[in-house]
Amino acid sequence: MGIPMDSNIHAPTVSSGPTSGGIPARDLSKLSMTDLMKHKEKIEEELSALSSVLSSHGVNMGTSLTTFDGFPRDDIDVAQIRTIRAQIIRLRYDHKEAMNHIEKGIHAHFASLQSARDSTATSGTTNGSASLGSEANTPETVMGGIRPFAKVNSVVSGSPADRAGLKTGDAIRSFGSVNWLNHERLSKVAEVVQQNEGRAITVKISRKEGASDHTVELDLELIPRRDWGGRGLLGCHLLPL
């Protein structure tokens, strides 16, 4: 996600008001699941934008803002960076809270389905609700990555992604510990890649076979590497869904 910047990278580019990233405080317990998901996505957009501003300054959340002898650096806008970092910390907390409510909502939904199934079984009635307790409909599988969150837009021949078996058009259901609930506009995928250079990452994908609507689900082992002869650690481009 790019952010237009002029020649003065120290010019204020984000608000520094009392709310986290400009998102007003909300009582999450009163939001529907749909509104919770929209709220989560809004937070992720704000986090992505703020991270881009930090990158434009050449810093991240862990970069030192002082010189070796303890004085504030004069090559960056220390005050703005501190403000942005504080907003990111608040937004991360807000995102965690939203995730907690989403997970509770999912579990409550499936608990209700389970209760309905048990009630049907007790009454001796056999109908379609008997399948509600199947593995494909459990909270664990839904939260664990059944729903795709990214699509493979391109794969470079001979790259780690290519060797793992990824193909253009594949839908990513989970990337290591990252899934549709926590990918934060794919920023978490980048973190997993950086943290696992040289180590295998399990990537769960869905792939359409030929011109048919038949879809297969595959588990691939992807090893991020720098020495494969191209740019980046993966050699592929992902797009959020």
Low-confidence stretches: 1-21, 128-145
Q: What is the CATH class designation of the largest domain?
A: Mainly Beta
How many beta-strand elements? 5
- Enumerate the strands of the largest sheet in spatial order, edge to edge or round the barrel: 4-3-2-1-5
Give the overall shape, derived from the CA principal axes. flat
> What's the helix-strand series?
HHHEHEHEEE
Distance between the termini: 14 Å
The CATH homologous superfamily of the largest domain is termed PDZ domain
Total count of helical runs of at least 4 residues: 5
The largest sheet is: 5 strands, antiparallel
**Structural classification:** alpha+beta
CATH architecture identity of the largest domain = Roll
Strand content: 5-15%
Q: Please, what is the average pLDDT?
A: 77
Tally of domains = 2
**How many whole angstroms does the radius of gyration measure?**
22 Å
By CATH, the topology of the largest domain is Pdz3 Domain
Protein name: Probable 26S proteasome regulatory subunit p27
Keywords: Chaperone
InterPro entries: Nas2_N, PDZ, PDZ_6, PDZ_sf, PSMD9
Pfam families: Nas2_N, PDZ_6
Structure write-up:
The longest helix has 46 residues, at 78-123. It contains five helices and five strands, in the order αααβαβαβββ. It folds into two domains: 28-117; 148-238, Pdz3 Domain, CATH 2.30.42.10. It has a five-stranded antiparallel beta sheet. The protein is of the alpha+beta class and 241 residues long. The chain is 38% helix and 13% strand. It is flat and about 75 Å long.
